[in-house]
Amino acid sequence: MKIVRDAETLSSRMNHRGACACDNDTGDGAGVLTAIPHTFYAHELKKTHNVDLPPYGKYATGIIYLDKAHHDESERQFTELAKECNLDVLCWRTVPTVIGSIGEVARNSEPLMRQVFLTGNLDHQLLNKQVFMLRKRSTHKIPKPGVRFYICSLSLSVVVYKGLLTSDQLWSYFPDLKSPTYDTYLALVHTRFSTNTFPSWERAHPLRYLAHNGEINTLRGNVNFMKAREGVMESPIFGKNLKSLYPVVEPNMSDSGSFDCVLEFLVNAGTRSLPEAVMTMVPEAWQNDKTMPKEKRDFYHWSACAMEPWDGPALLTFTDGRYIGATLDRNGLRPSRFYVLEDNIMVMASEVGVYDVDPSKIVLKSRLKPGRMLLVDTQEKTIIQDVELKLNIARSRPHSEWLKEQILLEDLRETHLKKYKALPTMDDDISTLKGCSIQRVASVNGINEKALARMWGGDKRLSMFSYTIETVNLLLLPMIQSKKEALGSMGNDAPLACLSLFQPLLYDYFKQLFAQSKIIDITFDKKEGPKGLSIALDRICEESCKAAQENYQLLILSDRKSGPHRVPVSTLLALGAVHHYLIEERQRMKVGLILETGEAREVHHMCVLLGYGADAICPYLIFEMAGALRNEGVVDRTLTDAVLFKNYVEAMDRGISKVMAKMGISTLPSYKGAQIFEAVGLSDEVIEKCFK
């Protein structure tokens, strides 16, 4: 009972951290997650339903939001699904509430709250599996337009009370929480200030595993890639039934809700412990930490291959009933303070002053540091230190061995050089070059070698891809010569592409919001006219999907065949269409998308391509143009191919890093596919097909 009252005190003192509606009485959301108060529920059900609860751990319970008009039918469907999962519903209980304590806006959308109790003649592990399957299947099947159905939690160990409340109202709205027999060994409280989504009863925290302070800036990409993984995931626990758990991320979720869905899935279907799942989704900064042990670094490296980080400023608190803990994002952009007391109690909050304690009883007082994890194992009754915890997880599997199976771009380059080592190149040190090469060829699509050697009036591909003198002089030359992106004012005062009298590139419509390979030709015959674009996009998508199904691992979308008789599809258009088509067909995670493009050349171009799912980009025309500029004396003739390439790449790295920093995103895998753009002036048809 003491922990419940302490949680009430802590929650009430954070009332100023939450927001409220225009009626001043409706909060953005508040809630509490506790261990199941077995004694309290056993007494209540015996008194009101004459039901004898099984022992703690032998049954599951949870509060479900329903609507009064359809709740009988929803409960009937839920009971039938429970039987299909070999579970028996013991009873339904209407959760007591005091409606007079909440605001008018909250009352107008208040759900009917029903609490279900269910059990099964199964061991603990199998019972937990079936309860999770029931939670997912019922969430997918029961809700319909006009039918409300939301499970706050369904667990063998914890229960969530929450709503569209302020942190003060929470404790008076639910009389259960005032009962002297409501006892728990852990409590997780939260008061919400909505930022990215509109407040609702369902979006209040805590969620099923998580309470979250912050934002996930890479949400759209994370959700898209999770959807794409549904085509390749396997589970020894669920086997063929795994597909019944899809979609992993349910529709209309906030960033926190989406994170919670994936965390729940990794723990229940992925054979990961809760701390390991959190480490996978929110890794600390590891790439440049030379003091990090190799096993730990290899774990994070492997995790980055398995899942892109969910990136953004965030303090995440989590529990599954056994473990309760918290972690900070790699930059530590949210506050977190904690005390450990001599009576073996730990208190953590997003600020100090929310909990009264005698200083003489404090054993440890500290703050959570960037990327670090705080964890309590309630079974072992111990605090597990960050270093020990993560090393044990890192050593639990042979991650170093798994990493040896990776295919790197360097490997592809070396294979290419061995295969074509007889081809003449423009200088002798090209063998040291790890990226694209500038090779001398007789002709390209009807353009002879002599013409290719001249910038203007020779290589007509430059005009075809909308290169201008300003593009070359102001943007590209500084990158090639000085390794730096050209300086400019903050912001962009260029007219919107949709209002331009010129022919803008597709990239200009997008504004930033703060193994085995197969070549896919992305050009079409000019005789097909404007209709050829749509036909070509459909062909490109179908060829890419077929290649993925035939187990090709790398798809190269190439416009190299562009010329007098072949019209290139915009690389961005082709990429967006293929990326989303493969996601819908559940084939995206089987392949890497490499772009061979004459179109992309600026930092913004690369950012948009990365933001819409590109895994690697080879802007071949830039490097060929650099050779022509060197021949004409515009670029220092002593600069070798390798130096030109490295200068351009380094300038790109700096430019992309600067854009990512503005968005609060720390890693390229998180930025890739995140689609943090708004498209201005493109038709709905184009958006739906390529950029949804």
From TrEMBL:
Which Gene Ontology MF annotations are present? 3 iron, 4 sulfur cluster binding; glutamate synthase (ferredoxin) activity; glutamate synthase (NADH) activity; metal ion binding
Q: Which InterPro entries match?
A: Aldolase_TIM, ET-N_metabolism_enzyme, GATase_2_dom, Glu_synth_centr_N, Ntn_hydrolases_N
Record keywords, A-Z: 3Fe-4S, Amino-acid biosynthesis, Flavoprotein, FMN, Glutamate biosynthesis, Glutamine amidotransferase, Iron, Iron-sulfur, Metal-binding, Oxidoreductase
Domain Glutamine amidotransferase type-2, residue spans: 1-379
Pathway assignment: Amino-acid biosynthesis; L-glutamate biosynthesis via GLT pathway; L-glutamate from 2-oxoglutarate and L-glutamine (ferredoxin route): step 1/1; Energy metabolism; nitrogen metabolism
Q: Look up the EC number in the record and give it.
A: 1.4.7.1
Q: Which cofactor does it need?
A: FMN; [3Fe-4S] cluster
Note the PROSITE patterns from the entry.
Answer: GATASE_TYPE_2 (PS51278)
| Pfam families linked | GATase_2, Glu_syn_central
Question: What GO biological process terms does the UniProt entry carry, in alphabetical order?
Answer: ammonia assimilation cycle; glutamate biosynthetic process
Give the domain of life.
Answer: Eukaryota
Primary enzyme class: oxidoreductase
Tell me its family.
Answer: Belongs to the glutamate synthase family.
> What protein name is recorded for this chain?
glutamate synthase (ferredoxin)
From what organism does this protein derive?
Answer: Timema shepardi
List the top taxonomic levels of the source: Eukaryota, Metazoa, Ecdysozoa, Arthropoda, Hexapoda
